[in-house]
Structure formats: C-alpha cells, structure tokens
Amino acid sequence: MERRITTPLTEEKVKDLKAGDTVLITGIIYTARDAAHKRLTELLHKEEELPIDVKDQVIYYVGPTPPKPGMEIGSAGPTTSYRMDSYAPDLMDIGLRGMIGKGSRSKEVLDAIIRNKAVYFGAIGGAGALIAKSVKKSELVAYEDLGAEAIRKLYVEDLPVVVIIDSEGNNLYEIGQKNYLQSLGDK
Prior knowledge:
Layout: E1 2-6, H1 11-15, E2 22-31, H2 34-45, E3 58-60, H3 88-93, E4 98-101, H4 107-116, E5 119-122, H5 128-132, E6 135-142, E7 151-165, H6 172-185
Parallel strand pairs: 1-2, 2-3, 3-4, 4-5
Antiparallel strand pairs: 2-7, 5-7, 6-7
C-alpha cells in the first residue's frame, strides 16, 4: 500500500505502517552516519544534551555529496544501516521514531524497534541523485568537522521509501524471501 506521511513521526503514525508499504515522507528529517551516531551516544552516556532533539524524528543514514548549482544537496543515497546498529537502540530509547537506510538490521535494533514503536525504512541504493530531488532545504546543524557525515536538517517533499521493519517487528526481507520460496514450491 502507498502511504503519505508528514513528520514529526509520531507513534500514532508509525502503528499504521506495515512492512512492504511504500511511503512518501514530507517534512523535516535529519542526516547522520556512524561518526555522528557515535558522538550522539557518547553525549547520551555522559547525560549531556544532544545537538538535536530526536523525539519523533527520522534519521536518514546518508553522507550526501556536495550540491550541484541550483540544488540543496548532492547525491543522497542511503548508507548501509548495520554501521549504526550499535548506536540506534540508545537513540530509539530516547524517542527516535524512524530510520532510513539500506540493508538488514541486528536483533538488538529489531528489539528496540518493537520496544519503542519505531520503524525502519529502506531507500533505494544507487538512486541518490533521484532521492536528492526530494530535498528542498538543507541546513548543517552539528559536527561540521565530519564533512559529508555532519548532521544536517533536511526539509523533504515526497521522499520515497519502503517500510522494511514495522513497529511490530515484521521484516520485509524475511517476508519477501519466504513468499518467493513459497512461490517456487507452487510451480
């Protein structure tokens, strides 16, 4: 099913999303990769304030390239998500509601998704230039020294993603493989 959602991403919005749904996201999302995630969780463990409030927010695992003239952002394809797996549960435990990346997630992340009523979206790897067209505004908000891995606040319109893991723990990668194998047996 195709859905349209506007951030912030509340628990109410997340509960209606199911693994396999295609979603167009409009609103504010943040970018961060492993170096920024490491800094955020270090601040958490020291009980210090984070540079962004993650409650009901979406973090896109991306390190965009420099923008071309007339663009807000350069190519913005997803980063492999497992690189954030050691950090993501801590952020979900303080309210992070959505993550966008590519690839499978660990059991710890799956458990945190269920526990916190969160969602993991997949973006299409190799479609970074297309995804960048959804970015209407980009603002550097933290960790400028990280370059492409700095935290940016993006305003997106109709950013195309797919629900990979929903708030109940249903995993599209597992469902898709099971359905495919069943279809082979049906022939």
